[in-house]
Known about the structure:
By secondary structure, the chain is α+β, with helices and mostly antiparallel strands. Helix content is 58%, strand content 12%.
Amino acid sequence: xxxxxxxxxxxxxxxxxxxxxxxxxxxxxxxxxxxxxxxxxxxxxxxxxxxxxxxxxxxxxxxxxxxxxxxxxxxxxxxxxxxxxxxxxxxxxxxxxxxxxxxxxxxxxxxxxxxxxxxxxxxxxxxxxxxxxxxxxxxxxxxxxxxxxxxxxxxxxxxxxxxxxxxxxxxxxxxxxxxxxxxxxxxxxxxxxxxxxxxxxxxxxxxxxxxxxxxxxxxxxxxxxxxxxxxxxxxxxxxxxxxxxxxxxxxxxxxxxxxxxxxxxxxxxxxxxxxxxxxxxxxxxxxxxxxxxxxxxxxxxxxxxxxxxxxxxxxxxxxxxxxxxxxxxxxxxxxxxxxxxxxxxxxxxxxxxxxxxxxxx
Length: 361
């Protein structure tokens, strides 16, 4: 059923004004067409107008419309015309039945809308509770694990600092480093999702060398010894793009991290940056196992993780990527490669500048 159609933004006075204008307009058209249509047909048309108003507006404008339409029907269409006096018994019955049906229709439609609103509110509440529980379950593991690692490693270093070999100390420091990075990533994802959900995300676009930006992100992953091959070739023909470099860097980090986390070791992760017309195109693909075709449509949902995948993610990364890309008025698509693996394609409309190349010349 048609719902409020966002008419809540109108005050009761505006709703009454729109309703009155609508019924007067319909009555005027019917009056000039009265030579061609019977007044009983006019009654049905006016009743339909009241029904439409009842679907979109609050109860007070609807009741006003119902009473006004009844008076207009009496005054302009029921004999004798231009008077509220009705001589024919059948017409009196028609008029009374019209008023009753119009008023009952208005009240019932309003009640139905109230029931629908309560059902929607209940559904939204259940959905919120479900997301809240999912978030808690995710945090209970994704935050507890790195924190436990940090506490354990620090305790061992404090208690056995003199007896630990240099290699053992380096191993513990490496574990602390990995746990810190993992913990920082989870906190950043939660903060980023909060910014997207509350509408507090502000885009700060400036001229950006996407080659340099991408290479910086890739170098950080290469230093982590992820046992994956990250293949990125500089595209010297690229212009400068006007983007929010911080958000695009976060998009790249999340997509590469997602590929590292869910593909086998020795998998090649390929990154390409292209220009097509006034669009910046970023393609990140791998030769891993890809996505089940039935699951691709859910990949960007909050807290979604592929069934039977290893732990290590909160299911926020790809939804954040989608939010950051759409904040640039761009799009992101996911598909499987023809041979193996997955491919993410980001398309962002943006301004370009070749001043970089002129400067180099």
